[in-house]
Sequence to fold (214 residues):
Amino acid sequence: MARITVLGGTGYAGGRIAREAVSRGHQVTTVSRGTPSEPIEGAADRTGDVTDETLLAELLDDADVVVNALAARGSMVGRVVEVSRTLVRLAAEKGVRLGVVGGAGVLKVSEDGPRLIDTDGFPEQARPEASEMIEVLGLLEDSDEALDWFYVSPAAGFGDFNPGERTGSYRIGGEVLLTDEEGGSDISGDDYALAFVDEIETPRHRRARFGVAN
Fold:
């Protein structure tokens, strides 16, 4: 059993990761700005401002793994990088593994092609959030070797607009966006959470990023 703290634990990805981890018997704490409207049975809830370094330090003292599932939206636009910078430092100091819910925008569309964010069809409304998550990846890659981190990029069609269904399986890729035979790129929220918690339980990627898709 691992002690897992999920920042953004009431969001689309964070909530699913927390539920998956609870279902496997892990000790899970979700952290959000307000009291969750639908608490996750079996998880402890903490409310607070994740930009507060004192709170982050306290949370990491009680964790084996911290999940950064913060979304750069609303009041968090421009602040996810700030929080991530603090997390990187504290996790390295305290020996806590750091997992990040990344974005698809950083993935290349082919081995020699551009990143998804640099293609003409990338949605403009998604660009600020994607750019911030690319910056977070840079912080991880530049971090001290003592920090054990992993960054999971979903398929392009990932989000509450396309929740999909749990299939119980997924594919793992590298720096290139995973697509199906028709060129689609999707993963359900539950299957993304499955892949994420599998990585927590059986680490295969140390200081590395990877992509997942159905």
Q: What stands out?
A: The first strand starts at residue 3 and ends at 7. The chain has one domain: 3-213. Helices lie at 12-23, 53-61, 80-94, 127-141, 189-201. The domain at 3-213 is CATH 3.40.50.720 (Rossmann fold).
